[in-house]
Amino acid sequence: MVKPASKNLGILIGLIGVVLFSSKAIMVKLAYLYQVDTLSLLLLRMGFALPFYIAILCYLEYKKSSKIGAKTFLWLLLFGFVGYYLASYFDFLGLKYIKAGLERIILFIYPTIVVLLSYVFLKIKVSKKQRIAIAITYLGVLITFWKELSVTGSNVWLGVLLVIFSAITYASYLVGSGWLIPKLGVLRFTCYAMIVSTVCILIHYSATTPLKTVLNLATPVYIYGLGMAIIATLMPSFLVSCSIKTIGANSFSILGSVGPISTIVLAYLFLGEKLSWLQLLGMLVVIMGIIYLSINKQKP
Predict the structure, then answer these.
(1) Could you give the CA distance from residue 25 to residue 224 in angstroms, rounded to a whole number?
(2) Considering the entire predicted model, what is its pTM?
(3) CA 177 to CA 79: how far, in whole Å?
(4) How do the domains of the chain map onto residue ranges?
(5) What is the sign, positive or negative, of the torsion defined by CA atoms of 40, 41, 42, 45?
(6) How are the residues of the chain apportioned to helix, strand and coil, as percentages rounded to the nearest 5?
(7) N or C: which end of the chain has fewer CB within 10 A?
(8) For residue range 240-299, what is the model confidence (pLDDT) as tens digits?
(9) What SUPFAM superfamilies would the database entry show (predicted)?
């Protein structure tokens, strides 16, 4: 049983992690102004972060000599592959065919997928509070992006399918991390998962794109790449893992609804995008869902 103080701290940590992750979209949009391709940005994001993960992991392995079993290591490879590699890649591909608003709506079906996977594979029951919180936050996201739900253009359904795959792979990562983190610890699990994801991206990039492409980009692109690595990858990856350890994958998945909301606010602040009253109402509903999740009922 998680203590109320620990639960609320876990929710706060998770929210900070989600907001930092959402800053990636702003930096990507700013970098796109310099005609950079998606895969190069993905490589810069993970490549700049890689030395930090390796250094932290080396320190942890030096201080803690316990070995990882072969079965656990294979699970690490799997969840590292699907988590920050496949999920990101499917999402970026899907955005080629559908509007960002529609993408966010589809992507945020992942809380339900997390709940279903946790129930099927880990036999974790869904509480009434979690079901209500999911419903409230879904409603808020729908209100926020209601005007962006028009589905037009070629290959739209291909884009929809790709983003659904992204939601499924990310949900699988969350469920897997909720199971593996207690075995390995927050820092150790995160470092291994992110290193695996980076290696996957490096292999993909080297197989499809000349290496000189990433070496001949505009200087601001490298600055945004470093920002994505530290602010939108390194820091939130540890915060998210810590939050999952504290409150569980099911509850954390609900916090993810803040992601598209924080993206709108950051876009308003840094990109000058307009903010409508309908979007403000949707944000308020999402916040209500998070507050409801964090309320601890006192027994008489």
Answers:
(1) 11
(2) 0.76
(3) 8
(4) 4-294
(5) positive
(6) 80, 0, 20
(7) C
(8) 889 988 888 778 877 877 777 787 788 788 878 777 788 788 878 877 877 776 665 444
(9) Multidrug resistance efflux transporter EmrE
